[in-house]
Amino acid sequence: MKNSLLAIIILFSSFAFGQDDSAETPKIAVKVPKGETIILKGISIKFLEVLEDSRCPEGVTCIWAGRAIVKVEVTSNGKTEEKTLTFGETRPGEEKNTNLFNSKEFAINGLKLNPYPTSENTGKDKNYTLLVCEEKNN
Fold it and tell me: Model-level pTM?
């Protein structure tokens, strides 16, 4: 009887304390290959070019972590504008920007530029892809 009572107490306490009140929704990223266009939530996003990729390659010790700067064309409601996104470190006086589009309901942000450089692939002939995601605004 004591073992059954102990098992019931452990079972109920695990239900009471095992639940987390908030769960973070995972971000789902969409790949945009360089030179191609995608449409996300009615917004057209074209990955134009990589302006700079000075990110420190994996497996190498660097003084500065580096950054990647990309140019993207965003079209919404018939209006087209070019945006520059910065991933990684910024220099003094520069702002880090990863936002492509913002409205009351949602935002579209750049997440990452792939591939990340390694000591073997630091050349200019990379097949770059930009990862973007949609996030709800509260």
Answer: 0.75
87: in domain: yes
The number of folded domains in the chain is 1
Question: Can you list the positions of beta strands (E) in the chain?
Answer: 29-33, 37-40, 43-53, 67-76, 79-88, 99-102, 106-114, 129-136
Element (H, E) at 84: strand 79-88
Largest CA distance in the chain: 73
In contact, 100 and 85? CB cutoff 8 Å: yes
What's the CATH code of the domain at 40? Answer: 2.60.98
Strands 79-88 and 67-76 come out as antiparallel
pLDDT in tens, the chain (138 residues): 666 666 677 766 666 565 556 666 677 789 999 999 999 989 999 999 999 998 988 888 888 888 999 999 999 988 999 999 999 887 777 777 888 998 898 999 999 999 988 877 755 567 899 999 998 876
Domain annotation covers residue 85: yes
**Cβ neighbours around 13 below 10 Å, total:** 10
Q: Does residue 15 belong to any structural domain of this protein?
A: no
Q: Is residue 99 part of a domain?
A: yes
